[in-house]
Amino acid sequence: MKILVTGAAGFIGHALVKRLASCATSIVGIDNLNDYYDVELKHSRLKELESVTNFQFMKADISDATQLNEIFQSHQFDVVVNLAAQAGVRYSIENPSAYIQANVVGFFNILEACRHFAVKHLLYASSSSVYGLNKKTPFSVDDSVDNPISLYAATKKSNELMAHTYAHLYKFKTTGLRFFTVYGPWGRPDMAMFKFTKSIFEGKPIDIYNNGELSRDFTYIDDIVEAVSALVQRSPRADEPLYHVYNIGHGSPVKLMDFVRAVEKAADKKAIYNYLPMQAGDVSQTWADTQALYEATGCRPAVKIEEGSERFVSWFKNYYNV
């Protein structure tokens, strides 16, 4: 297979390229290397990918349709995994235009390129945030997701609708990946695991929203890329629909304070708590029903929060010379 991974310098993209290296003829990665968070971390991820002999990186932005089409025309991809996006629920409240440009315009450009250059399968990052204030748990791919409570969630829901339309009209396979709170080595600095660890080592308070009354389906990065890789390589039945969406989560929510204690234990240091009310756009709970993923791939995420926390903190200490 010839595979394109967008957002290749990102957290999931970087890990996925390493995982796909053994099953792809060639992998092209693109990323615009924006400064939403520390660009040096993105360069460090790319440096680690230099050992992947069948990987080629190009700096490119999916919002630039002309540049994107030139890449598609040059390589004739079989599979595209679109992970490029403006991430973060809270930042979408401050800078909504960035989300429309990257997540709506950029995704439209990806769909159009897949259509015109005969891509067989498009997989794309969606998010658990599409479930909004859904009270039914665990969250199932069969549940209604018509009530997002952040612009980020709305853009991800729009991606699913657009992909459904293109699969129906232009007859290529699309697979949505609803990621649930991904964490692990090389993670994003704006996410809880990274922020908590950094603050604990610096002796600064960590923000505990909703007074700690939150739970998340934390999913370790290796489990994430194992599932995505399995979906990339999966041979669908002839009678299957062209459009699919899967929950990519651990399948067991962790209470926020249990998560904090796992990080404290891994860091061997107590955190200072700063209790705050619920943040706008946030939800109190996420919980993935992963049965559909298991039936399609046989994958069951296995890394528990205690083990994952130890691995992350070990990486953090090594990377930042703590």
UniProtKB/TrEMBL annotation:
Presence of keyword NAD: yes
Entry-linked Gene3D superfamilies: NAD(P)-binding Rossmann-like Domain, UDP-galactose 4-epimerase, domain 1
Annotated ranges, domain NAD-dependent epimerase/dehydratase: 3-249
Keywords tagged on the record: NAD
Top-level taxon in the UniProt lineage: Bacteria
Record keyword NAD present: yes
A Pfam family assignment: Epimerase
SUPFAM superfamilies named in the record: NAD(P)-binding Rossmann-fold domains (SSF51735)
InterPro entries from the UniProt entry: Epimerase_deHydtase (IPR001509), NAD(P)-bd_dom_sf (IPR036291)
PANTHER family according to UniProt: EPIMERASE-RELATED
Protein name: SDR family NAD(P)-dependent oxidoreductase
Species: Pseudomonas weihenstephanensis
Lineage of origin: Bacteria, Pseudomonadati, Pseudomonadota, Gammaproteobacteria, Pseudomonadales
